[in-house]
Amino acid sequence: MSNHDDMNPFDQMDEDDFFDEIDYQNHGGDAALDEYEMLTKVTDTSAAQARKGKDIQGIPWERLNISRERYRLTRLEQYRNFENILTSGDAVDKECKQMEKGGNYYEFFYNTRMVKPTILHFQLRNLVWATSKHDVYLVSNYSVNHWSSISGVLSEIINFAGHVAPTERHAGNLLEGFSQTQISTLAVKDKLLVAGGFQGELTCKRLDQKGVSFCTRTTHDDNAITNAIEIYDSLSGATHIIASNNDCGVREYDTERFQLLNNFQFSWPVNHTSISPDRKLMTVVGDNLDGLLVDPQNGKTVATLVGHRDYSFASAWHPNGCTFATGNQDKTCRVWDVRNLSSPVAILRGNLGATRSIRFSSDGQYMVVAEPADFVHVYSTKADYRKRQEIDFFGEISGVCLSPDDECMYIGIWDRTYASLLQYNRKHQYQYLDAYY
């Protein structure tokens, strides 16, 4: 992953923060400030309003000098995909075709602009997690917040702007804690929340208890960003944490005593890892063209994944334990089968840029792929990934997640004007009323 010290993580997003420019141009700058404030007034959008024609993000296209369709074309032409390996995306564009659109698996339900997700590093987008169809956790500036879609209440869980220190005593627990932690990544599962930071910080909180349980600095390396975190149940049934770091390390902790169980070192920065359902394999992807399948018991490489043309930042396993996917800055998500790794099962190309997040539904029917901005794709695994639903909006994506029961999908949107949290509900044969269930 690109070194935080070498580049401003907001450089890319400043140029793509399009609504500031559009609103300014269309409303004459300061001379039309009152009209600008009226246009950008915070309003939510419901499914009923969207069916009547309201833009799901509340963007008043009818008052702008550009249509949504025209701006979409402009965006597709002008958006700059970040690449570590130059022209990697162009090479892939010539190789693959986009899969068929037309799937209709999740339908828009609600967009709340009370929730304002943020992104600190432009390559790290795992900042939104749902523990139920009503409970969502996300990062907003220095805060980790909880959003209840059923009550419409936003509450702060941890504020990292000040001093955060653990209340429990464990060997290796950094009792003095941290101050002004910059949150790079987040993971939440069941009652455990884990946040990673730019200086290798790892902060663990049990959501059903007060205070923070554990703080540690995984590494003191100068380039120490915690790039990704996975929470999973080990073979013994105990809950474990895996942290992927920019110092080329992958570290495993238990959550009973928060002890370091494994520390595997690789030859390049690790941007993401994921554990197979049977706990026998682990994907390891990062600042290398090839990905790895690794034995999580000893850290030894089992197989090498060859095909991507740039660095990878996402991976996920299908519940069947045979299929997994990797996401790359070459604008592709590649689906693999462990029984034959000579070539991918499918190569899925994005519209704008890199694959930054991948999620499989718990029933295995869908794979959700998020680009850096504007597009989330829901692929049907039953249709061999040849059919997809394209969810189209405007703004940088801070994260995408499915609720554990697959009923809800949440998308965090970062934008100075239209930051929000999108909710989509799984489409069934029968229709729900426009009320919470």
From TrEMBL:
WD repeats lie at residues 305-340. SMART domains: WD40. The keyword Transferase does not apply. One of its GO terms (cellular component) is ribonucleoprotein complex. Keywords: Ribonucleoprotein, WD repeat. Gene3D superfamilies: YVTN repeat-like/Quinoprotein amine dehydrogenase. PROSITE patterns: WD_REPEATS_2, WD_REPEATS_REGION. It comes from the Eukaryota. InterPro entries: WD40/YVTN_repeat-like_dom_sf (IPR015943), WD40_repeat_dom_sf (IPR036322), WD40_rpt (IPR001680). SUPFAM superfamilies: WD40 repeat-like. This is U4/U6 small nuclear ribonucleoprotein PRP4.
